[in-house]
Write a structure and sequence with these properties.
Helices cover about 70% and strands about 0% of the residues. The protein contains twelve helices and no strands.
């Protein structure tokens, strides 16, 4: 009789109340490992979500452009009719407002992605054990996909207004990555609270609408007064202005501020990621109750 084979032992992980915080380097290494392990699941979730998003729509991918186009049309109407008197912009105002609303839409997509992906995966979270980072990565993938559609339209419109990119176009992707980086960090920061209290998700559009008007999205930088101060201290100002300048051939003037905001964004992303990872078991327990 052939000897019976010994069953393969599966790895056993023991969690204790302080095991996650005992060694932050071990925790960060585990986070990176889970991010890598979850890449394929993230891709499948992205393909599924994008297909479901556009499958039963008549306009399809155009829905990624409709809101920025509508915002642009409103502000062009207000400007042309004199209802709102706007300062002169360094590039034609249609390009200024259209590029600003497109960049703002990318930023808002990145803010909404972490909470949206986590909320959509409530059933999976309570029933399956998988790398949670796959949800975050899927949100980034979807944001990049929708951003690509917007960028193609932007590049196609510029020649009609005689706006031609220069060498800065090579750095334009860095501006998009910066918007997604900072937006994801903010979205990830508010996700744990937003999962517990739906007021957060409902209130964010109101807060971000006010912040948009204190950012050079549809308005040029004011030269004086309280508005000028708000625009200057707003950390989103260098992200929008620098990315727009790289796209339209302008000369960025806030590179130092831009780099500082990105550095803070990286730290916030790491801290928010750790908070998300530590709070998710508690959130799953509450969802299962």
């Amino acid at each position: 009789m052939a000897p019976m084979s010994t069953p393969r032992q599966l790895p056993v992980t023991v969690y204790t109340p302080d095991s996650s915080l005992a060694n932050p380097f071990v925790m960060i290494r585990a986070m990176m490992a889970d991010l890598w392990k979850g890449r394929e699941l993230a891709w499948r979730l992205t393909v599924r979500d994008i297909s479901a998003q556009y499958r039963q729509t008549f306009l399809g991918l155009l829905w990624a452009l409709i809101l920025p186009l509508a915002n642009t049309a409103v502000w062009l109407y207000l400007n042309l009719t004199g209802i709102v008197v706007l300062q002169e912009t360094p590039i034609p105002y249609p390009v200024y407002v259209f590029s600003g609303t497109m960049l703002w839409a990318i930023f808002m997509d990145s803010i909404n992605a972490p909470m949206g992906q986590t909320n959509a995966a409530r059933g999976m979270l309570t029933k399956l054990n998988f790398p949670r980072e796959a949800l975050l990565l899927a949100g980034v993938y979807k944001t990049l996909f929708n951003s690509g559609i917007k960028i193609v339209l932007l590049l196609g419109i510029l020649p009609f207004f005689k706006v031609y990119p220069s060498w800065g176009l090579a750095l334009f992707p860095l501006g998009i990555i910066s918007l997604i980086l900072v937006g994801t960090a903010i979205g990830l920061f508010i996700t744990p609270v937003g999962m517990l209290y739906t007021d957060v998700g409902r209130g964010m559009p109101l807060v971000m609408q006010f912040i948009m008007y204190a950012t050079p999205v549809v308005f040029a930088m004011p030269k004086s007064g309280l508005a000028a101060t708000l625009f200057k201290i707003n950390p989103l100002t260098p992200l929008i202005l620098t990315t727009r300048d790289w796209l339209t051939g302008g000369s960025p003037e806030l590179i130092g501020f831009f780099l500082a905001v990105n550095a803070v964004g990286l730290l916030l992303l790491l801290a928010s990621w750790i908070g998300y990872r530590l709070s998710l078991p508690i959130l799953i327990e509450r969802m299962s109750a």
